[in-house]
Amino acid sequence: MQQNHIDALKKIVGEDNVMTSTEDLFSYSYDATPGHAHMPDAVVTPANTNEVSQIMKLANANKIPVYPRGSGTNLSAGCVPTKGGIVLLMTRFNKIVEIDLENLVAVAEPGVIVADLNSTVAVSGLIYPPDPGTVATATLGGTVCENAGGLRGLKYGVSKHYVMGLEVVLANGDIMNTGGKNVKDVSGYDMTKLFTGSEGTLCVITKIIAKLVPAPEAKKAMMAIFNDLDDAGKAVSGIIAAKIIPATLEIMDNATIRTVEDYMKIGLPLAAQAILLIEVDGNPTVVEQEAAKVMTVLKSNNAATVQIAKDDAERDKLWAARRAALPALAKLRPTTFVEDATVPRNKVPDFLRAVSAAAQKHNVTIGTFGHAGDGNMHPTIVCDIRDAEEMKRVYLAMDEMFKTAIALGGTLSGEHGIGLGKLPWMENQHGAVSMNVMRSIKRTLDPNLILNPGKLVGEC
Amino acid sequence: MSDEINVKDINAHDKELLTDIQDALANCMKCGNCMAVCPIYKEVGKENSVARGKISLMEGVLSGKLPISSNFEKAMSMCLSCKACATNCPCGVPADELIVRGRQAVVKARGLGPIKKKVFALLKNRQLFDFSLRMAGLFAPLSFKKLPGKMGTIARFPMPGMDVKRVTAPMSASPLRSQHPEVIKVANPKMRVGFFTGCTINYMYTDVGQATINVLKANNIEVVMPSMQHCCGTPVFYSGDVDSAKVFAKHNLETFDSYNFDYIIASCGSCTEAFKIEYVHMFKDDPKMKALAEKISKKTYEISEFLVDVVKFDKTKLGPVNATVTMHDPCHMVRGIKVTKQPREILKAIPGLKFVEMSKPDRCCGSGGSFSMSYYELSRQVNDRKIADIGSTKADIVATSCGTCRMHIMDGLEQNNMDKETLHVIQILDRSYQAGSKK
Asked: To 5 degrees, how large is the angle CA B96–CA A28–CA A41?
């Protein structure tokens, strides 16, 4: 990138909104993924769609890479400016444009923090369900780009189920609108779904039309401890077979249980092979009936102990172990990889066993917890990235883990995205034909390959 | 070795300054959870204004990619030391302490800024410091105009480093410790405590010091204010000048130890934290001083904590204070010494007082001690959110337990045209005792 490009950017967004000092560039060279960092040439903070359009025209004409970025909490290196160029910081797009209570729709800019959107609509008794772990920091734009999910995925789905329409800027600077407020809309290719989860490789999102749903009136949390992993697996399938779709159905494996107990001393049995945390929500009467059914299923599948929360204080206690899973694991070692390989729910026990076997074989520490109800697991590898020999073993274990997930009919990513982190296994999952189709879409929409180049579909 | 120094030498030297915190920095997993709670990030929105960004910059220095530059210094200075990031960190990274280490490296690599250098040199000389602040108190009316009915003043004419609109604390014409004998006796004392006044209470908010003395006397406690006590060292410590902070610490530890008090109290969260926590950390590599610091630490209490947990203060003599009161938790109270229940217990014990909790009472008021001197506009923006939260409680009085919080909230209320009193918890309790004695 040349000085005249920097000058042109300053003309578009104003001097104060272009950062070029070494320290500033260094600050945007990474995201929340360990092991990936690269300095951009400029960090640009546009204020409106028109400015984004002008930036894209400039970048396209000069073949300068552009990396859209929100809060930079990405877990697959999606925000890392690997080829230099422009980090397009979208945090000034921070307005909630409209809350439409008649259509249950929110129109918001991509820089809005997800939790802020939720606290705004909570006043009207509504929720925007996607709630990734980073809900208090992540931007709406970032979560839409990554198609983020969260703890309520089983019942409420992920981001793509709530994005009804978008305003985007294409690689050539053209402004495009997709979808709208219509519940039913089959007009044309579903571009909204294509752009949702496109990880900044196809367009820059500048406005989001999001679906809202009524907040559940009541919740009930339960916890069960199992001495046998297969019993826990059967309990998960049993709950669904009993025609109950809990909002939350979480699992923690033995390694995680041990780590949490060591950290919190809350009396979890160290020999337990799995803990399930279940929460049903909805109409108070139905919630009571469903909770009773869940308790029956847990007991009939040999749960060693079962607990049900009588009030909010007890609910907090049951949740404490699950909430502590990531912090407790992360405190063990300096570096933490949180993966999100996902398998069909009836394969969860098989996957957990394979992960522990891989951990043992390669002598690495992996604790797995995750969303058992939707099969979305979070094998969490803790290590020290400064130890090259250990990292070799970590990557071997990762390789086994991802290949197992694919072999079980699963997928590389349930909610974090591919970015660079999982790119090496994309071909394994999708095969040559799919990769070709995806790459030709990328080439059509971004012929100069300037939008987050090299990510998601790799080099084209 | 030649006399010439090149960039490589400087980077290698800078790197050395941070080597011992290499592991602590590596524990940050860059999740960015600190962004949710950092008051500065909320206003500035830039990566290097939040803990994750600052830690990365330090790692950049360690890897030899960045020098300790003026931009590095600026980034490290953009922190209120409110500790919210450390409390919210899933990995338990003490980011607030690491940022102080970053500042310390700046001091070593680049020296203190010219203003701080002068102020801290003055601070280190106890007699000269005392003299200067007394003079400031005597001449204060010439340069500052007192606001009617409040412990607040505004400048009469523009002064360097001061925003003209800003409301600050009045410099007292006579410091607290000059208004009283060293030992304040009571008949049949049940215990004898050493009162560490701290600078804001001794030189500015003498009303808080007086209230502390009154309340302790009402509870039959002999109060001693050692005349040789000096600044607790917190301002210099947080600026990165740890060597100077140690001078203050040693002086205060030895001074208070020589009296052999039953307990040591302070009416300021930050001063208490210095005595209770920081002095022990400071001397972690000096066994003799560490043992002394631990001994003093065990005896030290913040005034509300002392009254509730140790004294079990006399509730029979309380009279009515008819007011609605809300409470701001100073950062070094809530996240430093972790005292939040006791001040509330005191307030709720006062007859006639209606206590209303504000939204986010533990969010930083934006003062950050000397931060508000360097970045007044930014500290106002942070404070405006606090003032809005205070406003929605409709309280008459804002209670808090820290002089600099009090000053900054008073200023905020004035700038936002809100007519409310800002008082230390102990002053409200003192009013209650006084009302009780009139019965």
From this structure: 145
